[in-house]
Amino acid sequence: MIIKDAVCPFCGCLCDDIEVTVDDGKIVAVDNACTLGNHKFLGDHRLPGPIRRDGDTWKDIRYDEAVEYAVDMLLEADRPLLYGWSGTHGEAQCVGVHMAELLRGVIDNTSSVCHGPSILAIQEVGHPGCTLGQVKNRADLLIYWGCNPIDAHPRHLSRYTRYADGFFLENAFRDRKVIVVDVRKTETTNLADEFVQIQPGADYAVLSALRAIARGKGDALPRTVGGVPREQLVRIVDLCKKAKFGAVYFGLGLTMTRGKYKNIRNAIELVDELSRHTKFTISAMRGHYNVYGSNEVNTWMTGYPFGIDFSRGIAFYNPGETTAVDILARKECDACLIVASDPGAHFPRACIKHLADIPVVQIDPYANATTAFCDVQIPVAVTGIDAEGTAYRMDGVPIRTRKVLSTGYPSDEEILGRIYARIQEVRQP
């Protein structure tokens, strides 16, 4: 059986033109997906059932036992942390927010360690963004800043930018210009019309220089800014002003370098300046396929996008205080539920050490670095493969992912719903 127009649940592109061939209850072929998406659809190393740590080994347990362990752990905790959420669908994220509120715990998603600073900047100065469809059909100038889509979002260029046809472009491949700004050469720089190599940590200075040139103050600049010759900066601004529609995409190379959210604010204000001359937009290259959705769901339900603390009985948000890394580094939380993410692979050592000292339950289909220190792991269905649900593309467009085969695994929403129902029985009898 061939299933057309399936949605790839890997990165924020959420490519919705995937063809999946299912034979004898297994996916045997995938068309149109990139290498990363292909690997996700064909991945076959799932845990067969829940496991619980038993000394230095693991023992198999039933789903009911795993759910009861998670319920007891969360009810006994004074300050539980519910972390992850970017690799699951919106319906499961809703259950997570309800659960955090009932437990008076903290719920945080992976954006606090990736594009959280981008959100802070947007809260200050707004977001002059647009959909990927607008970029595909109109943009004749693309700027990739601090990101490498060839490796991280392989189909971004073929579906929406460099290699995509555009409705309002006569010859999109010839008419589009691509500028890449990065601290080193990457696969993406090889296809750029202009590569701007800046010194590490100099993003803010280079953005400020571009803003000055756009305002006609270029003569006040030194000969080089952040390792970039003034002449090249002037050339970049000229290209931007001559474009009919420009789009900036930025990654963690801008968000998580020195300056953090101030870099993003400066980039947004550069776009604002350029929009006085032509049309320009700016958007983040979101990584997890539904990290944008976790920000959306949290904001609908609490007013805040990540790092939400319910310990006061109301939603409270203060990045740097209520975000997962900070809570773990201060050894505040005494239990952790991890859903659809792998902090063991990304968090600082001090946070991992504290996670190893407290009870941890992980809900994830695969064994990963977090498995090494969790007490119980509950395997679930993969959204977009054997579960369906709503996810948000990196441009904020909600897309319904499809279930392409049945495996018998429960979904994230089902497991979380069972845990939440049991907690309700105790806390709201």
TrEMBL record:
It comes from the Archaea. One of its GO terms (molecular function) is NADH dehydrogenase activity. GO terms for biological process: methanogenesis; respiratory electron transport chain. GO terms for cellular component: membrane. InterPro entries: Formylmethanofuran_DH_bsu (IPR016457), Prok_molybdopt-oxidoreductase (IPR050123). Gene3D superfamilies: 3.40.50.740, Dimethylsulfoxide Reductase, domain 2. Keywords: Oxidoreductase. The keyword Oxidoreductase applies. This is Formylmethanofuran dehydrogenase.
